[in-house]
Amino acid sequence: MAKYLFIYHGGEHPETEEETAEVLDAWGNWLGSMGAAVIDGGNPVGMSSTVNPDGSVTDNGGANPASGYGLIEASGLDDAVAKAKGCPILQAGGSIELAEAIDM
User: Is residue 39 helix, strand or coil?
Assistant: First the structure.
């Protein structure tokens, strides 16, 4: 089995405590549905900084800043895509970037 880094981009933030509870339940249900395939359920992330080749730092998160991550086991890209399609961030207007994590 391969490991895939799920990099979450965008998504609207819940505005009320009730919405927050619903979102957290949705994430818990989605992650729970994958069982042992979840290596690291991940977390949201703050604004990113980019270190450029000249050593300067850009603090704007880039063109499509990450909003979170997860590490999920999958049999291949098609399986990773199928698992990603159930992610609650998609219903919140976000997207998921998938990248195979290569063991060295």
Answer: strand
Q: What ranges do the domains of the chain cover?
A: 2-45+66-101
Edge-first strand listing for the sheet containing 2-9: 38-44, 66-74, 2-9, 95-101
| Structure tokens given for 15 | 């505005």
CATH number of 2-45+66-101: 3.30.70.1060
Element (H, E) at 64: none
Residue-wise pLDDT for 10-22, tens only, equals 998 899 999 999 9
Which two tokens mark 42?
């991940």
CA torsion 71-77-83-84 (nearest 10°) is 70
